[in-house]
Amino acid sequence: MKRIALAGALLLLFAGTGWAQVALPELTPAAPRYFFSDALGITSVTITPDNPAALQWGKPHRWAFGQLKLYEKDPANPANDQDASGRYAGVRGVGERWAAGIETISTKRSPTTFKETATSGQLSFQVVPGLALGLGLERGKTDNGTTTDRLKGSTYGLSVNLNKVFYLGYAEGTEDVDSGGVSASRDVTMMGVALRTEGKVSWHLAWDQVEKNDFAGGFTGKGLDMTTATVQAGLGNLLLGVQRFKVVFKSANGDAKATVVDVGWAPEKGLSVAARVSKGETTALGVVQLKSELRAVTIAYKW
User: Fold this and answer.
1) pLDDT of 67
2) List of E strands, the chain
3) What is the DSSP string of 5-37?
4) How far is CA 138 from CA 83, 101, 151, in A?
5) DSSP string computed for 234-272
6) Which domain holds residue 185?
7) How many structural domains comprise the chain?
8) What is the domain-level CATH number for residue 22?
9) Quick one: which H or E segment has residue 39?
10) Residues 130, 123: contact at Cβ < 8 Å?
């Protein structure tokens, strides 16, 4: 396998605007969102959504923590196989007119010495009934034992709540990276639509589109388009969900795809336990370059 260089992977690793949750937070109490180290990498823990304005519709309050395990395999060269283990945590509070959240996630790879961390914080305000504005900040870094590459981003957006059933979201932001003294930045835009029904059976249906431009500065290319489709159902206290992702790399003949399955015990309030399994692959010129599998368990409390 021909792996993306460290700097290239880092440019794609950090993105608080990773995938999904543009119009409305998921039903999952919390879960790590990790694609592939050579594609998207760590994004967040779903405590804070990609569009910070959507946090306003994320009742009830909650805290959560969990552990993850990631397996990456190179079909052409097993010597490139890697594992990663990590932890994550977050908390969010949602009032009638405001909402705030913060989360953090960290992983350590084997047999390499890479350590990856990402932290994000968000604020949102309901300026008029049904309309929320939000601001989010993210910070991340990767330490390979010799050098540390730092990443940062900011996002601002709006989300519209139509009768607590239909939701629309739009946000813009920037991502900046400093790798070995070389800096670069790019613009990010996202839009999404979601439908939520409440009752004995709750449904969450969402579609999101995220566009990341090519970097300007010390790096070239790396732009990508991401599409996410989400279906989640709350059957009483039982949570079931499936998500499908596709990423198309603008400056390369490749893409990444993944399917995520969520299962959990998630009452409206109180203690929740959920498991997430994700499987995907990255291809270039039609040849599979990397296969990935994520497993995670989350414990959360909502009040």
Assistant:
1) 94
2) 33-34, 42-44, 62-73, 82-94, 98-110, 115-128, 131-143, 148-162, 166-179, 182-197, 201-212, 216-217, 224-235, 238-249, 254-265, 270-284, 287-302
3) PHHHHHHHH--TT-SS-SSS--SSS---EE--T
4) 25, 12, 8
5) EETTEEEEEEEEEEEETTSSEEEEEEEEEEEE--SSEEE
6) 6-302
7) 1
8) 2.40.160.60
9) none
10) no
Residue ranges in the chain modelled with pLDDT below 50: 1-19, 36-43
Half-sphere exposure of 97 (CA within 13 A, CB side): 2
In a 3-state reduction of DSSP, which class is residue 110?
Answer: strand
In this structure, is residue 1 part of a structural domain? no
Cα separation, 17 vs 108, in Å, equals: 22
* Residue 127, H or E segment: strand 115-128
Give CA–CA dist 210/30, Å, rounded: 21
3-state secondary structure of 79: helix
**183 domain residue, yes or no:** yes
Are 121 and 140 within 8 A, CB to CB?
Answer: no
In this structure, how many other beta carbons lie within 10 angstroms of the beta carbon of residue 261?
13
Q: Could you give the CA distance from residue 48 to residue 46 in angstroms, rounded to a whole number?
A: 5
Asked if 240 and 28 touch (Cβ cutoff 8 Å), the reply is no
pLDDT at 201: 93
What the block records as the tokens of 82 is 């890697």
Answer yes or no: is 200 within a domain: yes
Residue 216 tokens, joined: 């300007």
pLDDT of residue 253: 75
Beta partners for residue 303, in sequence order: none
Q: Classify residue 88: in a domain, yes or no.
A: yes
Of 106, 108, 135, nearest to 118 by C-alpha is 106
Rg of the chain over Cα atoms, rounded to whole angstroms, equals 18
CA 44 and chain centroid, separation: 5
pTM of this structure: 0.89
Structure tokens at 53: 């304005």
How many CB atoms sit inside 10 A of residue 212's CB? 26
Which amino acid appears at position 175 of this protein?
A: E
Q: What is the pLDDT of residues 149-201, one digit of tens each?
A: 888 899 999 999 999 999 999 999 998 888 778 888 889 999 999 999 998 89
